[in-house]
Amino acid sequence: MITSGELEEMVENQMNQIAGNAVHHTDLYLKDYERSIVSLLTNRQIMEFIDLPATREEYDYYLYRKTIREFSVDPLFIRNPKLASVYLISDKKNAVYYYNNVNEQSFNAEDIQKQRDYFLANTTADGQLSILNHTIIEGQENQMLTIVRRIRGYTSPELSGLLAIEMRSADLSALWKGIDLGKYGYLFIIDDKGRYIYHPNGGKVGTDVPKAFFEKLNQAGSSSFIDANEGDERMYVARKSEFSDWQLVVSMPLRELRKPLSNIRSTTLVVGLFTLILAILLAYRFGKSIAKPVQTLKSGMRETEKGNWATIPLPPHRDEIVELMVRYNLMVKRLSEAVDRVVQVELSNSEIRMERQKAEFQSLQLQINPHFMYNTLETIVCYATIQDSEEISEIVKALAYMLRYSVQTNLEEITVANELKHVMYYLVVLKHRIGREFEIDVAIKPEYLLHVMVRLTLQPLIENAFQHAFPDGLEDYHFIRIDGGVSDGIFWISVEDNGSGMSEMKLLQLQEKLNTNRLADGEVDEAGKKGGIGVLNVHRRIQMVYGEQYGLRIESIIEQGTKMTMVMPTSSIHAV
After folding, report:
1. Vertex 126: Cα angle to 121 and 132 (nearest 5)
2. Percent of the chain with pLDDT strictly greater than 70
């Protein structure tokens, strides 16, 4: 009886592990398709198609449809051959459909409206992913799953369109071919509304689960329960997916689970009736052939719980218990392989994130406030028109240096001395723009000039001071001071002015933008001008190079001035 109890517990644990493993693989499978949708979200042609007006030209529609297929959809079909279709529907009733190895269909305006209404009713307004047992392909009802989400256009942050992909629900069964549930065991999936998403009996897909069974399933949670709704008594174990809210249910016939136990008990009772001696001999034999393998199996399961994916040794004979041990070894081997694949995927994702961050950093360097360069070019044109002057040569030389310095995107860090030199050339150009000399007070000690800092961060702060600190023009008493030093293991560079300063509310708003740790996107201020790109991007670039704990600190008092301090680590000093 003790051995039988342990076997029942072991079988239930095995069903729990199978259900958990199947849910895990199903979530990975669906997340892979989620990433396929995410890869399309930032595609410019797709976003511009969403903004296409209802009165669009047919050629524009044809051009967008062709471009999206060539550069977005066809590569997606190649990477994911199991996808059946991809389609877009905008709020302006524009729609495109792409099919992969299924019969292509066309839809009129009324069909598109019905599809849009259905998806809007079954998706969330915040753009979250929704997984639906639905298809637009005729004749494929209850055979497809649709992954859909709302997306925005190119010109507005509002969600004004729908992006959906369809895949065959039968493909899910391929994930579980390696799971052995015996001749009569199987798995099926139920959605949160109590409908069959997948079932080996295809006739049940899309139908409602019996109400009594669904209630019992929800009450049991992660525990097993017994039910006879399918004709015979079966044991069920369910696991709920946090990703899709589906419940994956493992079903095994009770008679098959208890068959080994019944054989053991019957044999023991029959042998006991013949003779006590024979019973003792048989008890000793069964003790070795059953109890020891069970204990070995339990020990192996404890090691598995600790994360040690080790198989257990098999005895020389073969019976039901040894077969169970063989299945356990197979399960451990496949779980180990699955964990290795997950680790490889995580490493791959980490490399992708690093590449994206580097691309974001280099892109950021090229967008630091080009308006100063445009204004300077206009100044050069004016000088060239009025008179021949050496001033033009001076401006062009300074501008050429600044341009060469700006486009060196392969260098992320530079010495303080080089940044100060860049500021010096900026002042040469600025002198001709404002029509007067202006000297900046540089208070940085010589021993700090070889410290490294993020390139193209000092000049944007100087330019910001000229643009915002002296709105009524420069006076003789105005000053801008650059200082730097090391304090408590932190290297800092400050830019201070005695200009108009900022109000507490404006300072608080700017600090909140800094705390979001996002790149500036050129918000329009009250005066209708784009402002703050240079300051916010300087802060974010420092964080991208050195970490989130570094960046820009701002202090300001109205009518007294502003002080902006770049905070960086002291670990890096440029070699002489």
Report:
1. 45
2. 84
